[in-house]
Amino acid sequence: xxxxxxxxxxxxxxxxxxxxxxxxxxxxxxxxPWAAQDPETVDAIVLTVSELxxxxxxxxxxxxxxxxxWDGDCLHINVHxxxxxxxxPRDADNDAVSGRGVSIxxxxxxxxxxxxxxxxxxxxxxxxPARSTGSQDRDEDSRGGNHHEGDER
Length: 153
Known about the structure:
Elements: E1 6-12, H1 17-29, H2 39-58, E2 64-70, E3 75-81, H3 101-108, E4 111-117, E5 120-127, E6 148-149
Parallel strand pairs: 4-6
Antiparallel strand pairs: 1-2, 2-3, 3-5, 4-5
Helix pairs in contact: 1-2, 2-3
């Protein structure tokens, strides 16, 4: 069995990195064969990138390294920052303007995980498009099997 993957990596500075990260992600997703047929997954990926970059900038006070990898089945988003503190899901008040990032990632991604490393942490989310080349027969309603590796809080 041969596994072919394609990927892109870019570093986004604290100043202006979130908007640039969304744009950069959209540009690269457009090159994937399933993107035009699955705009909902593209939107979910872009929103997840936005949330993860925002968390890196606001909470870790760090530049963020974003890596997107397409393996034919799953679009992997990896965001690394310099703070080893793992993000925690919070119950944000209806009037709160922040505090929903981790919950949004949990709700959107097929799977996700967090990993502490020597110099910071990496948060990873996986999205399986409904019409990807590796999953042509996949039921579009099968989303929701979220998996979180790391500390449950």
